[in-house]
Every structure is written in structure tokens, then in C-alpha cells.
């Protein structure tokens, strides 16, 4: 886990920041954001997902409630792991820098075609820091963790550091 934190501590930090701080009203920027990311799992964590993970995300501008906005994600690793998820996020901006914490459940499979029911439900928690070069394009770094929070012994246990390309329209 990032900086030696446990998953519970990481969720507390990300979730606490989302609950404690209101996101600024960004009514002028109502475009949907699409992220294309590539990252890698820590080599000593998780059985798969170590050799690279490509993630595609859609982040619509519509607000759900209390400043939370949706995030839809799909991920595929070079060694066959895959996930699909829905979650909530908040966007915090300061000048051209945007910080976005997010949390949500994902449906996860260690390898395509090898369905394991005990491993299906996982949770993805993370954040992105993005520098917006223009109103339409940003580049950044992000981190997320996928695990099942101890619900079963079949946890993904993936820590992903990623480079992010954000496109808005």
C-alpha cells in the first residue's frame, strides 16, 4: 500500500477528504472528462496486474449529491486481470492543477474466462493529480488500490501507480 498505509487507513484518508471538504462549484466547466491511463502494480502485491494496467474512465460533470460526481471505469492488465466499476469522486482545483479522490465498487476477475465468485466484488480507492495544459487536455499522475476490504480471502490486492491523460469534451 502507498507509503506503508493499510487499506483501512487509505480509505479513511481518501473518504475523509471527500466528506470533509466541499468541492468548488465549477459551473463554467461542465464537460465530461475522459481519462486514459497506464500504470503498473507494485511487484510484491497481487497475483496479477503486475505487468501493466490500462484503465479507461469516464467522469461526467453532473453532480449526484453533496458535490459527489460519478466515475465509470474499465481496466485490463497485460497478464489478463480485468475490472469494471462505478464510483463517486470530487474534483478539487487550484489554478491549473486538479486533485480528484474517488471510491467505488468494481467487478474484478483475476483472469478472463476464469470466473471466481469469491473474488468478483472488490473496491477501488484512489486519487489523481492532473495539470491542465488547456481547457481540453491534462496530464497527471494517479494511484489506486483494488481489494475486497477483507470480505473474503480472495482479494485482488493491487496497488497501481499510473500516468494519466485527461481529455474533456
What can you see in these coordinates?
- By secondary structure, this protein is mainly β.
- It has one domain (2-168): Porin.
- Helix content is 8%, strand content 49%.
- It contains 1 helix and 9 strands; from the N terminus they run αβββββββββ.
- 35% of the residues are buried.
- The model has no long low-confidence stretch (mean pLDDT 82).
Topology:
Layout: H1 7-20, E1 33-41, E2 53-59, E3 69-77, E4 82-89, E5 92-94, E6 97-109, E7 121-132, E8 137-147, E9 158-168
Antiparallel strand pairs: 1-2, 1-9, 2-3, 3-4, 4-6, 5-6, 6-7, 7-8, 8-9
CATH architect. name: Beta Barrel
CATH class: Mainly Beta
- Which stretches are poorly predicted, pLDDT < 50 over at least 5 residues? none
* Secondary-structure element order, N to C: HEEEEEEEEE
Number of domains: 1
Kindly estimate the percentage of residues that lie in beta strands according to DSSP.
over 45%
Largest sheet: 8 strands, antiparallel, barrel
Task: Give a brief rundown of this model.
The chain is mainly β and 169 residues long.
Properties at a glance:
mainly beta; Porin; 169 residues
